[in-house]
Structures are given as C-alpha cells and as structure tokens.
Amino acid sequence: MPARLCVFLGSIAVAAFWLAGSLRAEPGDELFKLADTQLEPVKWGDVAGWAADDHLAAFVAYQASCQIFRSIKQPRDDRPVFNALWEVCRRSARVRATDKEAARRFFEDNFRPVEITRLGEMQGFLTGYYEPIVAGSRFPNPEFHVPLYRRPPDLAAAGYKPGAEFPNKGALVGRRNEKNEIVPYHDRGAIEAGALDGQKLEICWLRDPFEALAIQIQGSARVILEDGTPLRINYDSHNGYPYTAVGRVLIERNLVPREEMSMQRIRDWMAANPDEAPKVRATNRSYVFFRVSGLSNEGEPVGAQGVPLIPGRSIAVDKIHVYGTPFFIDASLPIESAKPNTPFRRLMIAQDTGSAIVGPARADLYWGAGDDAARIAGRIRHPGRFVMLLPRELDMIEAGKHMPLTVAKPNIPEAEVKKEEGKAKQQAARELDMIEAGKQVPLPVSKPKIPETEVKNEKGKPKQQAGKTEEKSRAKKLRRQVGTVRWRPRS
Length: 491
What we know:
The protein is an alpha+beta fold and 491 residues long. It folds into 3 domains: 11-121 and 316-352 and 383-400, RlpA-like domain (Barwin-like endoglucanases); 128-294, CATH 2.40.240.50; 457-491. The chain has 12 helices and 21 strands. A hairpin with a 5-residue loop joins β13 (220-224) and β14. α1 (55-70) packs across α2 and α1 (55-70) packs across α3 (100-110). The longest helix has 16 residues, at 55-70. It is globular, with a radius of gyration of 31 Å.
C-alpha cells in the first residue's frame, strides 16, 4: 500500500443532468455526492479508445476488487457508490466473460461513463509507481547502513487505539506528551539524524539513502537479503507530516531543469551531491514506517483495498473515491521513450491510495516491479482525461438538482485609463441629478470609511467649508429617497 497521505477536501454535492433521454431515475436510486468535483456525462462512443481496449483484462482486475465486496454480507457504508458497487459485484459473480466483447458488454450494461475533473479544471493528472527491488541486509555494516523502520510504539493517532490499522488521512498523528496531548512526531530530518536509534525498530538495512526514500514514496519493496531471501515489506504508518515532492524542490532551487525531472535524475543528483542531499530530503518531512508482508518473490504487492495489484490495470486514487471503481484513462505518456508520444487508453481499477494522490481526477498508475517498471513510472507526470464508470444504481438526475452552478461572469470591456476632466465632471453631475430625481444608478465600489477631512489654511487653522450645513441637509433628504448613500460634500 503506497504511503501517501490524502488531504481532506470539503464535501459538496456535485453531478450533472444526463444527456436528454438517456437516463431515467428508478425507484431506490441513490444520490451521488463527491468532493470539489465537476462531472460531465458522456456517451460510450465519445470515449476515445474505449472499443479498442482489452476489456477482458480489465474485467479480471475488477473481479479481484469484487472479492472484497462479495465478502461483505450487507454493506453498511454511508457512500452511495460503495453500496452500488456492492450490487454490481454481486451480479458480476454470475458473469462468465470469456472474451473482450462479453467483458465490454458487462461494463456498458452496469455502468454509465462520466468525465470527471476537479472543479474548474479541464483534465486530471497522472503519475506512475512501482515496486522497487533492492539489495539489503539484516544487520548494519559499512555497505548497508541505511535503516528501514517498523512503526514506533510511541506513534499515536487521535481516536485510534495502539496497534489498530493506522489512518492515512483525517486524523491527528504524533506522539503523546506528559499531559497526554498529541504533539508533532520526529520529522524526516530528525529521523535520518538518529532520533529513533537504539529502539530496535530496524526491519533491515539498505546501502543508499535514495533507495529508502524511493521505497517510502512507492510504499512497498522487495529487499533481497544476503542469502537471497526476498523480504517483502509494505506500508504500515506515517509520522503525520504532509508529503513534499523532492523533485519539485530541486526544480524550484534550479538544481535540476524541469524538463529533465525523473526519479533517476533525482537519484543521480543525490549521488553527485552527498553533502546537500540530506538537506533536500529533509524538505519532505513525511516519513513512512513499514511491516513485513512476506518472504516470497511470487505475486504483486497488496494495495490499500486488500487485493494484489495488477500491473497496467491497478491505480492509486484519492480516498474520496471508493476502491473498486473503474476509471478509463486517456493520455499520451512517455512509455516507449522519454517523450510522451505513446497513446494510453485503458480501463483501470482503483485499488490503492496515496499521500501525493489528491483530487478527484488524480491517479498513480501501477507498472509492476523492477528496473523497467521504475523507468516508466519515474517518467510519468502528465495530464490525462478521466472517465469514471458509475454504477447505474446511482441517480444522476436527482444529484444534478443539487449541483452548484457557476455564476456567469459579465463581459466587461477594457476600462479607459484616461478621461477628459470635463466629461468626468459632466457624468458626475448627471448622476447627481438622477439621485435628486429619485432614480437608482449603479453605486460605486464600497470604499473604506474615511473620516471627514479638515482642510487647513496656510496657518494651520481649520478652514470653514462654505455651504456645509446646506449640503448635509441635502444629503439627508436624498438618503430618504434612494437608501443609504455614502455622501461627501463637495469642497
């Protein structure tokens, strides 16, 4: 399970009316709500690459997610999508899809395609991840001296009992002080400097600090020990700090050009700059702790949903989504080379989550294990189109009635910077005449309250303004006619 903390997004009801005549609400249909999201219904024929995909491969990945749903006798989740997916998975148990066409019909019969983006944006964003395979040791030595830690006993999360499954968002994480208050835990800089030394928390030891960082970003790894034993480790918990991308730090400090950024480029820079590398790593205060998940080279790591990930079909998404939700991704990615010219149009299944995976149209594509997967995953930071497959049980029409509409912006021509002084005075006079006639005119933008200015003469004595009493009386009369008006008598 990749170690990625998801930030909270305030929930608002979102949806859109379905294409005219293509949707009818049925009894029992449920309202669909999501966070800071805009949805646009589309037709299957408008989803580029949909017909050409290998839907049978996607169906296999989807059935893996359905094993979790089918283990639940009766759903008690307050998210309508979860309950609707539970129903679809019950039906999928009776489906014997033996070819791509049958699998495609299953998805089209049970789901509706809806393009999804963050509110106000045009596309989503894609990255890639993989399972590193690195050499390691059970014991520290001059070659292997970088530890990977298990969860410290003093790590606490508000509202969670010690030893319970650790939350990856929405909870205060730290350690308790003498007043039993949760205070910040050691950050990356402190831990790398030895804050956890002597507590016997080390699972194993690696040779390179970058390898430890990469494993924490990916959330799992295979560590090949001295005798050839493959030690499988998976994400367990985190220290409570938000994730900061060190690649972005290198770009912002002009240490690596943006167009060259990749995981390999980060590794090369850190190897060439061993004195500065710890300071750059410390900018990512987030630190991840692991657990041992096996001693085998067989199979893929288990994602957050609890099922083994499938290379090329599993994605990590923000936890605002329900695991098991299908997404069709359309993008041009740097798969065959460093240039983003490989079409990627594929039905993916949400089976994992992560701290850098934030937003409704944000996904991490799982590519498998080893160096080849690492090269592809490390190059991907690209936009893409997200089409979410929503179960037909959801009532999109009713949800559309609750969608906040964007206020239309007026078409305002460019303001003139200069005006002739005479025309400005004439305009002011016309507006004053309209007020006196009791007619409404657009009021100026509200200005800060300014106390009445005393005009002083050359000797510093206040200068009496002519007709001041008459002007105040006049203003009072006008306020009765047109309401509250901020009035300043002419000097």
